[in-house]
Batch of 3 targets.
Target 1
Amino acid sequence: MVKLICTLEDHNDDVNCCAFSSSFLATCSLDKTIRLYSLNNFEELPYSPLKGHTYAVHCCCFSPSGHILASCSTDGNTILWNSKNGLKLAVLEHPSRNPVRICRFSPDSTYLVSGAADGSVILWNVQSLKVHRSGSVNDGSLVACAFAPNGSFFVTGSSCGDLTVWDDKMRCLYNEKAHDLGVTCCDFSSQLVSGNKQEFQMASSGQDNVIKIWFISSAEPIGVELKCKHTLSGHTAPVLACAFSCDGQTVISGSVDKTVIIFETNTGNILHTLTQHTRYVTTCAFAPDIPLFATGSMDKCVKIWQFEPKQLFAGATPKESTNTSIENWSEEDVSIWLCKHGLKDLVEIFQKNNIDGKELLSLTKESLADDLKIESLGLRSKVLRNIEELQIERKSACESVPDEFLCPITKELMKEPVIAADGYSYEKEAMENWIINKRRSSPMTNLPLQRLVLTPNRTLKMAINRWLETQPVRNQKPLS
């Protein structure tokens, strides 16, 4: 289930964008301001709002570290702010003073991309604060942008409906007509689609009322390939925003029809439709480390939503949703488990007898018949079969470490996973030693590494932590 936990009503005009760091939520508006909130209690920070733009602020985004906040505006400026004190760090002026509609940091914070109403794309060097490269699309305004998680390329979307793939030298690698009437937003999943090549999932939304899920692969000698996996339908009007959850399992979208829809990525099924906004929903974003997301609207409000722990993603078992061992399941988790296995009729009996995870694992055919008074032999047998499967799953989880948690170099469980330029994750110390020994090629592909920057893989670290918490036999502590 999804729960509305907070509504922020501080802006005086349409909310255009919202963005999370690990500590803050930023929002920007037609009222020319950017507002910052603490994720601890969603109180506005003392130095908020940030004022520096002279016209509407269209977009805001945090650097990967969260220390820098970028905002861009109709005034033609992209402003860099210190997110910890609200001080202005720099003003990047568009060379032609065109309205800037979108901005995004590269995963290693080296570059900032900005896209403007005249179709121009500028790649700024964040260190020198100068233009590194520039280019332009053939037609239309640039309204969407997203970097691939490995930083090797980025995608822009135009008001004419094109998706264009660029490398860091501003060479156009691929172009495709993706949405009739125009692209409105695009976002990458941070999870690799395949372990044997650089393949990513990307979502795009458009004026044609749909969201499309794309597979984008980047490998020599093919170059870049863009394939539409499937189209998500459900909105009855143009879709203005879309965003992936951290694990890539869900996509949220906001629309002119005033609704927010949560889709399951792999199946395209609609999990939830939220109708609390009263005007167009213009933006949506997931928090990086916690089960929260935000939506913003022309109703001047930003709403904060939480996935309830019992069902972080619809269709998941309690073990997958709460990331706790079966022994720690609540009575609610057991009820969800019963429903998933076609035992809905037993929910009331289990709840009356306060059956939690520990009690579930201790049930026998005698206790089912004598204590719980379940008369049907078939139901008792079905419960016991499913409990046996849980026991096997529990034992298996304790005995094997998932391959994706092992460093390709050391073959050991990673403590500080980092993403290298090849798109793969490694133990930080092992990869640093690999590079120090003058091995500038990828340990996985043996191809030259285009960059030696290592980016912390916080999503993977969180996944390892969650897995460690389900290992009662190992007594392993979560990574600090």
Target 2
Amino acid sequence: MVQVYLVFTTNYFPWLTIIVVFPISAGSLIFFLPQRGNKTIRWYTLCICILELLLTTYAFCYHFKLNDPLIQLAEDYQWIYFFDFYWRLGIDGLSIGPILLTGFITTLATLAAWPVTRDSRFFHFLMLAMYSGQIGSFSSRDILLFFIMWELELIPVYLLLSMWGGKKRLYSATKFILYTAGSSIFLLLGVLGIGLYGSNEPTLNFETSANQSYPIALEILFYIGFFISFAVKLPIIPLHTWLPDTHGEAHYSTCMLLAGILLKMGAYGLVRINMELLPHAHSIFSPWLMIVGTLQIIYAALTSLGQRNLKKRIAYSSVSHMGFIILGIGSISDMGLNGAILQIISHGFIGAALFFLAGTSYDRIRLVYLDEMGGMAIPIPKIFTMFSMLSMASLALPGMSGFVAELIVFFGIITSQKFLLMPKILITCVMAIGMILTPIYSLSMLRQMFYGYKLFNASNSYFFDSGPRELFVSISILIPVIGIGIYPDFVLSLSVDKIEAILSNYF
């Protein structure tokens, strides 16, 4: 008993393996549950998600030291002897935030998927398979294992899109898989290049690769390959066109996973691989990242304003907000990178909430085009209140998480040692224009949906307002958005030491 107790209370217990494997393993048991309607399946999936989130929180609270920038909870088991392939997992300050975000958003997305009745077993299994793939990506310490987890999570998204989407679901699912699987080829080439460079034995360990130096031309080639792969997932213009189509057709619980977690995997990859493993190439490309990030904020904000489809408008707003992450990563400054990490977490909450509320609105009125809506504030006041508050969070209202994240990115650009004064002033001014455009498309969306008399005057304009389940999901996301806005150290304290360690390669 003493030995068992010691295993559970020390770092020798394989916490991360259990956290990665548990959702997909427990999810595969869904097919053996007795066929008694969808209720059993829903509750079973929800219990798995809650249990996984509690397990993750417990492991991180009691076995993760905040002031240690090194890898913790490390696990290293030889998997394939033939070519020295290891099951290597570990977390640091960079991965802990996205893992907890994944657990939180997936649990709420499971609750949001309550109305799904067709092929309910398969739907919930795919959500749990995605859960494992995403946590596996964030906790991988082996570059080939990272690629495998990255790929594992594509198949469930494709099936969720093609089976439970809107009218053009097959088109959007095909476009999604062509873009993401096509970009994965570049990721695989980069992984193999780094793994096989300079030795007869493949070196796939992140720690070994981080200390490896490459000829500058080769490092640039690796950087471009990884960048294309992450640029599709993030997405960065002009590789973003799959995103609005995918969000426009997907069920809103799938949209929550896409906006809340999937896009953040691209940003995580940029920091984890491009910044940490390839610092010289990142230093060369950072001015271009700044230009692309600035253009993305302006372009996506203007494009969002022109969208008639509600979900596509929110999708383009996501692309615009990703521009701040690119700017934070490109600034190569302590503040900029911390702001980018905070924006990853902040937008994970806000994006997921907006898609959830757009979906619940669609469930009531069966309209998706903004110019057909109007007057919804009177019949559904609770949804109107939540939508308004989270739209304010999206347009960076002070006191909300979006404001703090964007402000820190601003300071990161101004204090960056990498750039001269004039380029910094120019980028900041253009960014400010983008921040002015955000309230325009957010507030015009609210005006078109909720104000006026169009639906209120319609003969069949009686709707049920938000039920307890929907209200619970909305409030559960709103609380951390306000919490981070008031006390951002809650998130920043996780990553600050790791970010200093990454930036020590640059200065």
Target 3
Amino acid sequence: MTPFIFLFVAVLHLLPSCPGRAVCEDVGPLKTFIEIKEEIAGYKDIAKDIVDLALYGKAQNRSYERLALLVDTVGPRLSGSRNLEKAIQIMYQNLIDDGLENVHLEPVKVPHWERGQESAVMLKPRNHTMAILGLGSSVGTPPEGITAEVLVVSSFDELHRRASEATGKIVVYNQPYKGYGETVQYRVQGAVEAAKVGAVASLIRSVASFSIYSPHTGIQYYQDGVPQIPTACITVEDAEMMARMASRGTKIVVQLKMEAKNYPDIDSFNTVAEITGSKYPEQVVLISGHLDSWDVGQGALDDGSGAFVSWEALSLIKDLGLRPKRTLRLVLWTAEEQGGVGSLQYYQQHKVNISNVSLVMESDEGNFMPTGLAFTGSDKARAIIKEVMNLLQPINITQVFEHGGGTDISYWIQAGIPGANLMDDLKQYFSFHHSQGDTMTALNPIEMNYSAAVWAVVSYVIADLDEMLPR
């Protein structure tokens, strides 16, 4: 293929869907990709202004300091807790005080689970008190606890092969860490699979890339028709120790006590604020993070940092007196940790306007030094995103990765809306998240400044382009 023909075909391939619209109508000629590329290049000075304000101006370290004030004041923010509702009310007032527009709370129903007191003690072959964290939605044990022999397995396959050995025992999963997405299935499904073979409880090796004797909690789900048994995470160290003991033929007995209890769903809110678009106010670029957390640590990393970097993106744009053509909508989700409960209800309430959503963005994988943007969308939209990221060459954050998304924006992406999330060091993230180590100490204000700069540049430029991102 000659270079000219290749260019001609590439330009045709990258034609956007429709100018300023989500649904194509008879609205005149569309911009070619070369024209869009030139349009994006025209934002070079604005991108520099955003970066300078975030990294070197009066806004530097602002997102870190704002977050520290909230989490030091409120602490962790579990779905259904008073802490979460206090944080929502504080954020509502913060967004009003920041001068953002259309600040409001959208009611949702969220799960209410409390862990209560919990303990696990190895009685044989020696006495050893283990660090545990009950898993979200787990049932509790009887008041006297459950005392039983342990069956250690490294996989679901091994559990099924040894099903006849599991009746009446506590199943301990010592699954190797093979990345969060693959390994988290043991936390989510471990209790169900253990119950299917007659186990009385399950203890899951924490899904973490690194451990200093710190258990990591998280959500788990029961299955209709399968007995609900208590389940908790234990440390990597204790899981490996029991695996070594079992490999020698040593009998292990554990006493597990958990007061965990599920209550009826209660009222909560998604928190919303905007910068209203100047030309297409009905069209939206949605930027988000979740305000809830688990009930350990401070919920600073997961996802206080993502929520506050998203807020900071709008603050930077507002401080520079910028108003994009489309509305920039900040949503701070509730009950993400329970499986995207608040965001699902938001989607159900707002999907009628899905044709007016240009891009959905979520920061929920920590805010260490960003390496780029993960993106899901058409090839045409990806090409545009790459050009936008090129505006960040001065700070060397230009990469566009595959598989952008997040729990809270997944419903929109599945419906065909382009989606993006910040990318950074996931090994660090999974060392801290869902643990007592999720505190402000895990965060770096300079790295949050960079995250906010990237988030603000991308959201503003996409919201201000003449045309929406193509589906």
